């Protein structure tokens, strides 16, 4: 959550006046017992009475009033109320707590966690639920079902569960300070990230056509989506012999697929709201697992691969040279490279490339923006390139970064792309990697380069 200075005239906010809110403050507002706001001389300690019938808005209003704001400043609309997922105290996982769901080799959920020692010491009962969130498109209500409940005794660990990987899975840490709390009161609940089905990866463009390909998981199986632009009305004739192959590994040859389906036999999905694209999907029998990949092949021959997804989680990013796609007889084995652009595509974007290179012994980045992508600065206004000393680093553990819109434009581009670059202070070394992230959340990564290698 962030607080910002909003400009009504421009219908935008100022990134320079945007600040992240500490989760501790949200806890104080939600459960205001003897709220210690700030131990500096600026503010003091406020004891706020709590009425069990008070709404969240009442408690927030009281908190703001006690901290110096007038009631006229505290505006709130009761017209649009978001449905709560549960009646308990809620807050997202913060620094020190790790809650993640990954895929096992059989398509089930692997739970990973880290809990601070002080939190474990102050809690008599600790367990993690794997919940299934589903949404109603008509009412915007969220229904939650507990799929698994696991008692936690260690500060960190990983457990393979029997819950199949599917969209909406979310781990929730529940803490009870005492037996009395466990039996009679509500727990503290810490929410981990919700699994979105596609593992946070946007669709890959089908080269030469107004179509994109996406790998996602449903009920523990590898599934494929095709995004077909509505103006591509004759796509079924064009793709009459085209097919999507499912592969256990990105190292598998094109004819070594686990299963496949013809593109024109995909099922159209009507419950997705898209203005420019129709969506078709197919559920395979292949278990979703690290390394699984899907590829779009133009015809019955095995040489014309027009799109292939990045391997499913846990496999280092592979680079497929765009010039290799569609070359008859060419072997399309993934190539790990540190000095060629890695391109990504999607229904909402033109193709964009990211390149790691070195200058004066430092790690540097180039962005290749297609010249037809004229509004890229608006689209990538909050996007940034992170520099990492290792491909194993978490997205938030960058060494340094720079916003994409602050890259310097090079005078010499090429026929199709404008080129922008940035030189960091990170020394180039084996394993260095750069990533293009969508926004400040660090949850959505457009593309990553392969780790740097000394040739």
Task: Give a brief outline of the structure.
It is globular and about 65 Å long. Helices cover about 10% and strands about 40% of the residues. It is built from 6 helices and 30 strands.
User: How much helical structure, as a percent, in the residues?
Assistant: under 10%
CATH topology of the largest domain: Immunoglobulin-like
Task: Order the strands across the largest sheet as they lie in space.
Answer: 5-12-11-8-9
CATH architecture of the largest domain: Sandwich
Assign the structural class, choosing from mainly alpha, mainly beta, alpha/beta, alpha+beta, or little secondary structure: mainly beta
What's the CATH first level of the largest domain? Mainly Beta
- Radius of gyration based on Cα positions: 25 Å
Specify the biggest β-sheet: 5 strands, mixed
Distance between the termini: 44 Å
**Domains counted in the coordinates: how many?**
4
Give the helices and strands, then pairings.
Elements: E1 2-7, E2 12-20, H1 23-30, E3 35-36, E4 45-46, H2 56-66, E5 89-92, E6 98-103, E7 108-114, H3 117-121, E8 125-135, E9 142-151, E10 156-164, E11 169-176, H4 179-184, E12 188-191, E13 204-205, E14 211-218, E15 221-229, H5 235-238, E16 243-247, E17 259-262, E18 267-269, E19 277-287, E20 293-297, E21 305-308, E22 342-346, E23 349-359, E24 362-370, H6 376-379, E25 384-388, E26 400-403, E27 408-409, E28 417-427, E29 433-437, E30 445-448
């Amino acid at each position: 959550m962030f607080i910002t200075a909003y400009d009504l005239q421009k219908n935008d906010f100022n990134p320079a006046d945007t600040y992240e809110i500490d989760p501790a403050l949200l806890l104080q507002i939600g459960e205001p017992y003897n709220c210690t706001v700030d131990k500096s001389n600026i503010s003091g300690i406020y004891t706020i009475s709590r009425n069990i019938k008070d709404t969240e808005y009442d408690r927030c209003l009281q908190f703001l009033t006690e901290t110096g704001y007038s009631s006229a400043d505290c505006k709130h609309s009761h017209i649009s109320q978001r449905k709560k997922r549960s009646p308990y105290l809620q807050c997202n996982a913060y620094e020190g707590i790790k809650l993640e769901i990954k895929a096992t080799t059989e398509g089930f959920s692997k739970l990973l966690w880290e809990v601070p020692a002080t939190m474990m010491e102050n809690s008599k009962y600790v367990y993690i639920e794997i919940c299934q969130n589903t949404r109603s498109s008509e009412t915007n209500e969220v229904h939650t079902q507990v799929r698994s409940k696991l008692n936690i005794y260690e500060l960190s660990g990983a457990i393979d569960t029997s819950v199949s990987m599917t969209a909406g899975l979310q781990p929730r840490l529940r803490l009870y300070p005492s037996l009395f709390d466990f039996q009679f009161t509500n727990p503290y609940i810490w929410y981990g990230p919700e699994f979105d089905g596609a593992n946070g990866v946007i669709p890959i463009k089908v080269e030469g056509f107004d179509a994109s390909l996406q790998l996602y998981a449903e009920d523990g199986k590898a599934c494929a989506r095709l995004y077909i632009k509505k103006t591509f009305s004759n796509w079924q004739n064009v793709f009459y012999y085209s097919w999507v192959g499912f592969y256990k590994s990105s190292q598998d040859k094109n004819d070594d697929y686990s299963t496949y389906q013809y593109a024109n036999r995909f099922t159209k999905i009507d419950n997705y709201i898209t203005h420019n694209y129709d969506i078709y999907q197919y559920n395979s029998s292949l278990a979703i697992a690290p390394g699984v990949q899907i590829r779009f092949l133009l015809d019955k021959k095995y040489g014309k691969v027009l799109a292939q997804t990045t391997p499913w989680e846990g496999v280092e990013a592979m680079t497929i040279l765009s010039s290799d796609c569609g070359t008859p007889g060419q072997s399309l084995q993934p190539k790990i490279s540190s000095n060629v652009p890695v391109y990504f595509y999607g229904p909402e974007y033109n193709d964009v490339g990211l390149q790691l290179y070195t200058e004066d012994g430092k790690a540097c980045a180039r962005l290749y923006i297609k010249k037809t992508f004229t509004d890229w600065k608006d689209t990538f206004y909050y996007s940034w390139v992170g520099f990492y000393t290792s491909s194993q680093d978490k997205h938030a553990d960058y060494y340094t970064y720079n916003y994409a819109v602050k890259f310097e434009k090079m005078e010499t581009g090429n026929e199709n792309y404008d080129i922008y670059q940035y030189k960091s202070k990170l020394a180039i070394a084996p394993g260095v990697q750069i990533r293009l992230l969508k926004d400040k959340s660090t949850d959505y990564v457009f593309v990553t380069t392969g780790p740097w290698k000394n040739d």
